[in-house]
UniProtKB/TrEMBL annotation:
The keyword Hydrolase applies. This is ATP-dependent Clp protease adapter protein ClpS. Residues 50-120 form the Adaptor protein ClpS core domain. It holds the Pfam family ClpS. GO terms for biological process: protein catabolic process; proteolysis. Keywords: Hydrolase, Protease. Belongs to the ClpS family. SUPFAM superfamilies: ClpS-like. Involved in the modulation of the specificity of the ClpAP-mediated ATP-dependent protein degradation. Gene3D superfamilies: 3.30.1390.10.
Amino acid sequence: MGGFFDARRRRTLDLMVPGSTTDEFDVRMMAAGQAVPAEAEAVEGAAAVDRPWVTVVWDDPVNLMHYVTFIFQKLFGYSKAKATELMLEVHNEGKAVVSSGTRDKMEHDVERLHAAGLWATMQRDE
């Protein structure tokens, strides 16, 4: 019998293979459309737990500057001046940190930015 649903089930089960490396898991999660940290880091004691996560927006050749500014205002509630400053940082430096907080919140922010068509990742704050 098999068919589409069996193949889909196998793909889902492949995502949960015990003993797979972090890199393999990250690739699988990205293929499944999940938010994945830019750098998968091992938790290093209490100091790592205290460091917040950040959302990083990357420069892309597709989105116009005024659109990126608009998205920053809409999603994060930034003033036009702050949103423009962040947009220029993305444009000139290639990336900018646009939010920080808990891992769950940063995953949510990355998903919203992806839905708006922007390139975004999350990572531990440096």
